[in-house]
Amino acid sequence: MASNGTNPSLLSGLVDPTPPKSNENTSKIRRYRRCKSAPTADFLPAEIGLNNLQRSASIFGKPHPHYLRMAAYLGVYLSAGTICFYSVKSQITGKKTNGIVDSIYFCIVTMTTVGYGDLVPNSVLAKLLACAFVFAGMGLGGIMLSKAADYLVEKQEILLIKALT
C-alpha cells in the first residue's frame, strides 16, 4: 500500500481498464432489450423474419392469439357467473328487472369491483359466491392487462428493431 495514506477507491476492483477485444466475426448489431417477456428479445431481425411479418395494419384484422384466449376466458367467466347468480337470484335483494339481465349485470359489476349497491347479496351463499367472483374477476382483469401490455411491448420492440436496422 504505497498510496501515501489514502484509501484506494472502492470501485477500482470492479472496473477493468483494458477495453474488450473486438473480434471481426462478431456482429455489429447491438441488441437492445426492453422486456424479458417479449418473445422477440432474444433474436436478431433476420432470425425472426422481420421483413415477412404478417401483422395486421388495423385493429379489425386478424386478432392476436392472446386476445382470442382472453375472450374465451371472459366468456367462460361471464357464462359461469350468469348461471351461478341466476341460481341464487332469490338470495339477492334490490330492484330487479329481468333474471338473466340482472345476473349478467351483477356478474360484471362484481368482476369490476364497482359495487353500485342496487343489487345486494343477502345470504351467506350469495356473499361467498360474490367474493369468489370478485377474486376471479380481478385475476382475469390482471391477466388481460398483462397480455395486452406484452403485445404492445412486442410491437414496440419490432418497431425499434426496424428503426435500428
From TrEMBL:
Organism domain of life: Eukaryota
Name of this protein: Uncharacterized protein
Organism: Pistacia atlantica
